[in-house]
Amino acid sequence: xxxESIMKVKAVPAITFYLSLMLTILVLLFGNEPNKSQYxxxxxxxxxxxxxxxxxxxxxxxxxxxxSSFVFLGCRPLLSLFANYDYRIADWFxxxxxxDDVILANYAITLMYYGYTLGLILCKNTEKFYxxxxxxxxxxxxxxxxxxxxxxxxxxxxxxGIFFFNFIESNSYVDIYQSNITTPxxxxxxxxLFYCSFFLICAFHIQFRTNxxxxxxxxxxxxxxxxxxxxxxxxxxxxxxxxxxxxEVKTRNLRLLITMIFVFSVIFVISExxxxxxxxxxxxxxxxxxxPVINFVxxxxxxxxxxxxxxxxxxxxxxxxxxxxxxxxxxTCSSIFNVKLSLPEISYSHLASYTANPELYNLGxxxxxxxxxxxxLAFGLIGCFIIPFLLLLNLNVLEKYTKNKxxxxxxxxSVLPPILFTPRETLFYxxxxxxxxxxxxxxxxxxxxxxxx
Length: 453
What we know:
By secondary structure, the chain is mainly alpha-helical. The protein has helices spanning 2-30, 36-55, 61-82, 102-122, 143-170, 175-178, 187-204, 212-222, 232-247, 253-279, 283-287, 292-300, 304-317, 327-336, 343-346, 348-356, 358-362, 371-379, 381-399, 406-420, 431-452. It contains 21 helices and no strands. Helix 13 runs parallel beside helix 18 (371-379). The longest helix has 29 residues, at 2-30. It is globular.
């Protein structure tokens, strides 16, 4: 009965995917440019969101990756069809009106969505099929010890946030990168201690995953990271906390949808306050405009320009380059061994920024990157399907192992925030976090074995 019910559930998304592909082919064959690629992108967007809705919780890691990909990469062409926008007008780094290479950019995002869709269909991941197992009491780390680490880490987060706030107020946001500012000794360690202790608490003490006071305090402390002018760290942590909480709570997707609307409202307010602070504007200037929420979403979709730039670069070079997919691995290893690199030759975000607008790049600004752009440079359009498929499939498959293994739970959720940011970052953006998490997991495992003996 169990296997039959699973197959029945999977039949609906599979049929939906098939019909979506047929409709895409029809539009591709008989549709008219210049909007044909946009129509196909709309079909893929609706398909991936619908299948994510019926196969996963909205707050599952896989669903959150779909949402972040839409916000950072896919929202602009879609909003241009239904609102008063022209996504081909470049508004950051790239100047002027983007040419017909946007068609390939739209197809790249479409294939990303279909890669996600196939990953969702092949790996249905629900709590029903992967229930929690008991955690042996002797393996639990003492909660008093972990809360002490959490308290020390929280102090580090607050002090580090104030340090960056004072620096930006005295100088500017860009000066952080131009001056190669270094934080005082201990600040980075304490801030990592905050995240490390938080995920250890959630891993070994299940009741804290639904402790609203604890989670709220953690979110408030993480918000101090925005004082260095960056929103990504706080936003991805907020999404991860939402995922952790609702993975333990049985609720319908409709209620989760309402909850996510509230969460994104909070993200909207935080993001715009930080953005206005960095640029010296005011929050109420945004609210006085038309459709402030849509303007916010459209603004977040600036990474679309990074995809467009990758298309331009690939067409100009005429070849493929897989180096950029592994840039984070190369940069991490080079920093360990103190090897100097020419970043535009290794990092796609630096290459895109340098080639799109050298003047702004030399001033310390950046266009930003995307793992999808790296996938296009590495394997063309087929890479825009394969890499997203593998990313979401692994994200979904590995989550089920967190149900009964606290060590895996700790490592998985420690690297989830940077993974959710990969649509705007390099593919292995999570690698440094993974190395740290594995090292901590190794120490914890040794401690548990010691206590057993």
